[in-house]
Amino acid sequence: MPRSSPLLTAVLALATAALPVSAQQGDPSLLTIRRIYASGEFAAEPFGPARWLEDGTAYTTLEPSADGTGADLVRYDVEKGTREVMVAARQLVPSGENEPLEVEDYGWSPDGTMLLVFTNTRPVWRLNTRGDYWVFDRGSSKLRKLGGPDAKPSTLMFAKFDPAGRRVAYVRENNLYVEDLASGRITPLTTDGSRTLINGTFDWVYEEELMNYYADGWRWSPDGRSIAYWQLNADSVKNFDLINNTDSLYSKVVAVQYPKVGETNSAARVGVVSASGGPTRWIELQGDPRNHYIPRMEWAANSDEVVLQRLNRLQNEDQVILGDARTGQARTVFTERDSTWVEVVDDFVWLDGGKSFTWVSERDGWKHVYVVSRDGRSSRLVTKGDYDVLQVKGIDPKGGWLYYIASPDNPVQRYLFRVRLDGKGRPERLSPARELGSHTYDMAPNYKYAIETYSSLGNPPITRLVRLPNHRPVRTLVDNQELRARVTALKRPTIEWLTIPAEDGSKLPGVLLKPADFDSTRKYPLLFFVYGGPGTTEVEDDWGGYYLWHTMLTQKGYLVATVDNRGTPAPLGRKFRKAIYGQLGVLETHDQAAAARMLRERSYVDPARIGIWGWSYGGFMSLNALFQHPELYRTAVAVSPVTHWRLYDNVYTERFNGLITENKAGYDRGSPLSYVDGMRGNLLLVHGGGDDNVHYQNSEMLINALVAAGKPFEMMEYPNRTHCICQGKGTQAHLFDLITRFLDRDLLGAPTPAATAERATGQ
Fold first, then answer.
1. What CATH architecture is 5-30+490-758?
2. pLDDT score, position 350
3. CA 291 to chain centre
4. Distance (Å, rounded) from C-alpha 208 to C-alpha 28?
5. In Å, how far are 113, 119, 470, 586 from 139, measured between CA atoms?
6. Which of 150, 120, 122, 113 is nearest to 134 (CA)?
7. Cβ-defined contacts of 589-592 (< 8 Å, 24+)
8. What is the rounded distance in angstroms from the CA atom of residue 738 to the CA atom of residue 41?
9. CB distance 324 to 330 below 8 Å
10. Beta carbons of 367 and 574 less than 8 angstroms apart
11. Which of 110, 372, 474, 733 could pair with 37 in a Cys bridge, judged by C-beta atoms 3.0 to 4.6 Å apart?
């Protein structure tokens, strides 16, 4: 049942009273929910967004203006370090206004004479992809808003300069436009856009599951004469209605185009239109477009052809298709297949003047880079060995190098390597051997420099400008010195990296945080944090994640463990990642239980006080753990959980679970709803009422099942919050305060308010 506010207040008072006086008075070594989620004390220093200029000899970034009114666009020479304000904040004050534009993103024209500013942004689905665009001409110092007088505020999307820098094209209310910067003339390229006929951008499921959170649906041709774009027809996609009860006296219905498992998709196609207007030439593809996806499209190293990646509904086949921009004729040149699912290839780069392209495949059991001829008839392996390429960071055709992120020896760390594009020779690690942890890179176009960010678990990031290939620092850009001092002053946990054996012999990466004053003769409660799904790993040697909150728990006396089960995208080979196919939730739950069994055998773990918590897929996993293994877990917190995969979107779910018409048993076998009768512990269920991703419907279905089974539980709905449960003043702090108090009561053994009241009255 929902927990009442008086009960929450009483538990908070008890928890606070149990803390040392120093914590209540602000001991800098001890964390609180307010310090973590409300004070801003542990925010990292901002940097960027950075843009490389002049083939990598300079870059620009945003910096606060001297008068504090806005942000300047500043250019830095890489070697000399000289600083030049290219566009000052005061130059970005629109006519009739007193304050400069808030620059949320920006781009330069090819010659650097004009700046494109993205501001006043709003979400379409989950991302802030619409807003206002302004162009600032550095020569004339003129600032002009794009879209013309008919454009409503915050309605332009994906504005980009043409290759010559004389025009800007953009999407507005599902139509494409080109605006001439000299004359201001606006040419509509499409006029049929509507809520269900979507030009140049995407519906909910394409943005969420296929476009890697970047829903830009059009491309300039290299010669600037044409534009290629996606069109989605969503007229057969059913709406899922969200109910907003809080923003007005009467409820409002918010309809989201959301194709659930087995339901009809949008019909996607790609067309090419002249940048001066006219009819669209559609690329002619065979088969029902509602049973295929087009997740990638680019120009094919010229202005005559486009290249598409096309997936079948099962997503176990990815076709590389060349389409003629003039005739629309299409031909398949290469096909990647897998018995489970294939990954869409983002690291697709044309080489040799368009005669070949790079491709990433798991065909030999590991994720590796290949070079494939334009006709698809020949290919060669570039990266070799029993390791996974995690990400291609750059391809230098002139120098003959491929740069990529990998970690052959430790799956929780990330390093930069390079190897010859011809596949000859051994890979060369460029990240310093002494800097264990995780490194990310923004490579310069000339591959002589990179902006590198380095961190490790418990150590905030440092951002540096480095030379390549020797990785020598040119200068530090962000050192987060104040943040590092605050973190160093904390009573921090000791870290133990784990390797957990799975049932099939796989080695599961894990990490255990122990209290700073750990005493092996004591008995500690153990809390597992889990995500567990195909989307991300959580056992990573970097600064991110829930480190500070987990540190606060160790200060209270918890052990906190995280384990990446089979099915997570850890760099441990195809078999590890794809063992879960057709049975989401089954092997993952076995693996988490194996970790709990192993750790509870340690003398300092209290086997009667083991809990688990997670969000989204992690909430799904936490429910399965509690329901299927009551002998292991006493407590679970499930935030925004999927409770049955038939309730989720079809693109994600069918990729990993197959079609429900062919695999209903697999869907049921992994669902927490199938195991409600096994629950014997304590459950806190949390969900946002406005979640457009994992619908609140999931928790409602679970609530019905728990009620029918006579199972007590506690829950909190956050009205009108989305999947992040982050909207509204104080929401994040309230959420983690709620979870902390629930765990303290159930795992730390703090007395309940009822027991305290009984003692006070002598009953």
1. 3-Layer(aba) Sandwich (3.40)
2. 96
3. 26
4. 40
5. 7, 22, 39, 62
6. 120
7. 589/621, 589/624, 589/625, 589/628, 589/629, 590/502, 590/503, 591/500, 591/502, 591/503, 591/506, 591/508, 591/563, 591/565, 591/566, 592/528, 592/530, 592/532, 592/563, 592/565, 592/621, 592/625
8. 21
9. yes
10. yes
11. 733
Q: What is the spatial distance between Cα 301 and Cα 298, in angstroms, rounded to a whole number?
A: 9
Strand order in the sheet with 524-529: 494-501, 507-514, 559-563, 524-529, 605-615, 635-639, 682-688, 714-718
Give the three-state DSSP class for 221: coil
459: region left, alpha or beta (phi > 0 left; psi from -120 to 50 alpha): beta
The label of the residue with tokens 């304000």 reads 85
Which amino acid, 628? Q
State the Cα–Cα distance between residues 455 and 484, nearest whole angstrom: 11
Low-confidence ranges of the chain (pLDDT < 50): 1-24, 751-763
> What is the C-alpha to C-alpha distance for residues 511 and 561, in angstroms, rounded to an integer?
6
List 475's β-bridge partners, or say none.
Answer: 465
Q: Cα separation of 669 and 645, whole Å?
A: 10
Pairing of strands 635-639, 682-688: parallel
Beta bridge partners of 561: 512, 528
Q: Dig out the tokens for 185 from the structure.
A: 């003339």
The structure tokens 């409503």 sit at 152
Largest CA distance in the chain: 89
The Cα 106–Cα 50 span in angstroms is 9
Predicted TM-score of the model (pTM): 0.92
Do residues 264 and 282 touch, judged by C-beta distance below 8 A? no
- Per domain, the residue ranges of the chain are 5-30+490-758
Q: Does residue 536 contact residue 473 with C-beta atoms inside 8 Å?
A: no
Q: Is the dihedral of CA 574, 577, 582, 586 positive or negative?
A: positive
Token pair belonging to 652: 């994600």
Residues 566, 549: Cα–Cα separation, whole Å? 26
Report the pLDDT value the prediction gives residue 213, as an integer from 0 to 100. Answer: 65
What's the token pair of residue 367?
Answer: 């994720």
Amino acid identity, residue 456? S
Looking at residue 17, its pLDDT comes to 36
Say what the alpha-carbon torsion angle 490, 494, 495, 501 is, to the nearest 10 degrees: -140
- Total residues belonging to the chain: 763
Residue 320: alpha-carbon gap to chain centroid: 26
Token pair of 171 as six digits: 């999407």
Question: CA nearest 634: which of 746, 759, 724, 536?
Answer: 746
CA atoms of 534 and 536, how far apart (whole Å): 6
The one-letter amino acid at 43: A
- Whether 686 contacts 639, CB under 8 Å: yes
Give the distance, in angstroms, between the CA of residue 296 and the centroid of all CA atoms in the same chain.
18
CB within 8 A of 266, min separation 6: which ones?
198, 203, 205, 206, 232, 233, 234, 236, 237, 257, 259, 290
Q: How far apart are CA 710 and CA 678, in angstroms?
A: 11
Q: Please, which residues have CB within 8 angstroms of residue 234's CB and are 6 or more apart in sequence?
A: 195, 196, 197, 198, 203, 257, 266
Say which residue the tokens 């436009």 belong to: 177
Alpha carbons 321 and 325: distance in angstroms, whole number:
12
- The sign of the dihedral angle between the CA atoms of 102, 106, 112, 113 is negative
Q: Are strands 51-53 and 401-406 parallel, antiparallel or unpaired?
A: unpaired
